[in-house]
């Protein structure tokens, strides 16, 4: 897997991602301590609201950035967002009011919502070979998992030497290092975007792309399945460990570490697996494990705590991490296959926004259900949501899903450049190629290859003015 780091551009971008993630991890710990200083006993409420603001920023900002991606050089955009995050982090030690926490969190996460999809859309252009890109996706998954384990440990070590305000200085260094690494490389020139229409129409394109492409609709359903399973880990682990199993505070890190270890081991194995098995088979097989594991979680939390049930919980958390990684990591391959080069920023921005909408639903649900109905019911409800989402993905994602599709155009004039290899038939101009939704293909073809452009035009059009 490390062979992909021989590519200098990717090596610098990956290191930039690691630096930014480390800075974000330090900021997470420091922000929790800052909230306690400012709000005291109400710190949990403040952090809960801050988490909701983070998700709102992710959902709202990413599509707008996707719409503007063609107007701003990607390197400039990523560097500006890194500098913005560094500036916000630099201001955090001076925060003294709750509302100031909310404003700074929104600015910080809005910059992240602009940086991350742009970074994701750049990698497949830096690494055009499928094998290299698959390795890069696994490397990215490993970076996220290692950050979740390493950053808190680094923060604890630093807090033995300095006050938590200095953690924000570490955050600033992380973002500045990320900006410097991005500046140090020359990125491939992106394909010009040919979409027409208002900024709103361009911002909505990514979401409509997901709606019009069967495998992307299935990907969104799988994102919901992962969010349902992941929510019980991120929201309820501390309650399960401390209140149900009566374990010390350090055991919370152990449980989260088990989740991260399962995810990392899967990420390491995926590049080899995906050379032999299709994305669809891997993702659906892993997804079906999620509701089964959540049923096991319900059983464990419904029984009296003991040594066997504590060990079982760690195994369950590791399995959730492994299954989630197997679903999420190949998602970039699915998106890359389903969008033209020019539309990758919009596609990744839409996936970033829509997937976080799923978390915005499951996070509060996991918290409210745990308080009102108990942990076993919470696990069962989230398992039911996960199962329903997976069944939806099975229906939405055809088992036979070739990249090349034959189709008939009825809306393009004779001599149009797109019809250069088409043959005239009674129904229109027929040809075949790798099929994605773009300015010439508004809808997915019917089994007979007919494009429903005119029928769809009365309801919506992906490319207004095209």
TrEMBL record:
InterPro entries per the UniProt record, alphabetical: MFS, MFS_trans_sf
A family per Pfam: MFS_1
Positions of transmembrane segments: 12-36, 42-69, 166-187, 218-239, 251-270, 282-302, 308-328, 348-371, 377-397
Keyword terms of this UniProt record: Cell membrane, Membrane, Transmembrane, Transmembrane helix
Protein topology in the membrane: Multi-pass membrane protein
Domain of life from the UniProt record: Bacteria
The protein, known as: MFS transporter
